[in-house]
Write a structure and sequence with these properties.
Protein name: At1g61320/AtMIF1 LRR domain-containing protein
CATH class: Alpha Beta
Order of helices and strands: HHHEHHEHEEHEEHEEEEE
Pfam families: LRR_At1g61320_AtMIF1
Organism: Miscanthus lutarioriparius
CATH topology: Leucine-rich repeat, LRR (right-handed beta-alpha superhelix)
Number of helices: 8
Domain At1g61320/AtMIF1 LRR: 61-225
CATH architecture: Alpha-Beta Horseshoe
InterPro entries: At1g61320/At1g61330-like, LRR_At1g61320_AtMIF1, LRR_dom_sf
Radius of gyration: 19 Å
Strand content: 15-25%
Length: 229
């Protein structure tokens, strides 16, 4: 049984879902599948028919997962505005203690109107998460936000977060090695705190309102600044 579980966990998402339709054993494994990557490419051409169909497919997949054992959760909703009605439910199911990689690319058309609550990153989640990528959302960490002791990589793309909020978040991430910021318009001063002794790569692109970068990271060896013309 452990062998079949391992085989099922290694299958691509679409193949794992198909196997679950054919076998009760695989259906049980599916409910604990460690990787959920949900986007148009993975779900196939049928999901391209309309926004409602795409959201319903994702909702069906997430609801049939127990939420147990998810290591990687990638949700890429490029242009699927109606998915916002489901987001709270999806994230509550998928973002659980033990998760290691979380990618949320929420929308790139229309207004940014979803706030990633700090409560999503509970104690158990903060202890396990290693990679965090957010896109097209609000993220407002506060001083009461707990430490992320294993977080090594952060990517923020078109995220509404201020310089002070980002500094607060970084100060809680002592293991951080890579930080990438793109089109984060609210950051007017980027301060890299001295606690980031593992940070070696900083990439900033198209942050138009950012004139000042202050770094106290002693081992930063790669700094990339990009501005689109």
């Amino acid at each position: 049984m452990d062998t079949w579980h391992h085989i099922h966990s290694m299958l691509p998402l679409r193949d794992a879902a198909r196997a679950a339709c054919l076998s009760h054993a695989f259906l049980h494994f599916w409910r604990c599948h460690p990787i959920l990557t949900l986007n148009r490419d993975v779900l196939g051409s049928k999901a391209n028919a309309c926004q409602e169909n795409f959201s319903c497919i994702i909702d069906h997949i997430v609801r049939n997962h127990s939420g147990i054992g998810i290591k990687i959760f990638k949700l890429e909703l490029h242009g699927i505005v109606d998915a916002y009605h489901y987001l709270d439910s999806w994230l509550q199911t998928a973002v659980t203690p033990g998760i290691e990689e979380l990618t949320l690319e929420l929308c790139h058309r229309g207004k940014i109107n979803y706030n990633i609550s700090c409560s999503l990153l509970s104690d158990g989640v903060r202890n396990s998460i290693r990679h965090l990528q957010l896109g097209f959302c609000f993220f407002r960490p506060t001083a009461g936000f707990g430490p992320l002791i294993n977080l090594t990589r952060v990517v923020l793309c078109s995220v509404r977060i201020s310089g002070d909020e980002l500094e607060c978040f970084l100060s809680k991430s002592p293991a951080l090695e890579q930080l990438k910021l793109h089109d984060c318009k609210e950051i007017i001063c980027l301060k890299i705190p001295s606690v980031l002794q593992q940070l070696y790569c900083l990439e900033v692109s198209d942050c138009w309102n950012l004139p000042v970068i202050e770094s106290k990271a002693r081992y930063l060896i790669r700094f990339i600044l990009k501005v689109s013309v």
